[in-house]
Amino acid sequence: MFSVTFSNRFEILLDGLLERLAEERPGPFGQRELVVPNSAIRRCIELAVAQREGVAADLSFDFLAQWLWRQIGRVVGDVGERSPYAPALLAWRIHGLLDGARPAGAWVAAHPRLVHYLQAADARMRFELAERIARVFDHYLPYRPRWLAAWSEGRSALAGRAANDTQRADEAWQGELWRRIQADMPQRREHPAAAFLRAVGGMDAAQLAAVGLPQRIHVVALPALPPLYLDMLRELARVVDVQLHTLNPCREYWFDVVDARR
Questions:
Q1: Is 122 helix (H, G, I), strand (E, B) or coil?
Q2: Which of 235, 244, 230 has its CA nearest to residue 213?
Q3: What is the pLDDT of residues 22-35, one digit of tens each?
Q4: pLDDT of res. 193
Q5: In what order do the strands lie in the sheet with 32-35?
Q6: Strand partners for 21
Q7: Model pLDDT, residue 253
Q8: Radius of gyration of the chain from Cα atoms?
Q9: CB count, 10 Å around CB of 18?
Q10: How far apart are CA 244 and CA 219, in angstroms?
Q11: DSSP alpha helices (H): ranges in 185-238?
Q12: What is the rounded distance in angstroms from the CA atom of residue 222 to the CA atom of residue 190?
């Protein structure tokens, strides 16, 4: 089941969350699972539960990406405790692929804009560039999966779109870099999230329940929900009770708040 609760005040969302948490009886070894956007929301919920129930116990907090990664592991198989696409890990892979002194970096010569920057960059600047690219790819994964799929197949993500020469040049080296990242990944070239969606699509509710998915998850006050993560939550909702507590600080339609000219 997939349910969404809206409110323009966090206090109202919190009251509803506390009522639903009170209905759960996971037992002495169970956990009530929650996804939160930051440690401040986590602490607020812990204090509210302690005030209402006398003690804040059997609560398991996580961030959405980490929680979904564990569910991917349950459905797809052993994917490790940490995603190899995490920016902190991916930055080192990218740094190695950009290093022209290594055989892996020979491809850079085909992309003049990238060459122009790297020729003037010292070691620190190269790693800073790798970190920035890793963060960009980290955003592409949930928000631009079709771009990454096109690059993996050797196609341009800008095909049929209006784009200038600079944009196409930048897209070309990003696509080539992504393909090399994929080829360098151990065991699996397909991203585990894509494998998860494909696997879940072929499983019935009984099969999904058998892999050890949790009974319920509360997703609380996230400021944004990428399309990929929303798709994964929808698939999980076939067997998991997904409770989405969404904060909308406006009672009116957003586009009516600001005039069209602005």
A1: coil
A2: 235
A3: 999 887 788 999 99
A4: 84
A5: 2-7, 241-247, 216-220, 32-35, 59-62
A6: none
A7: 62
A8: 22
A9: 15
A10: 5
A11: 192-201, 205-210, 227-236
A12: 27
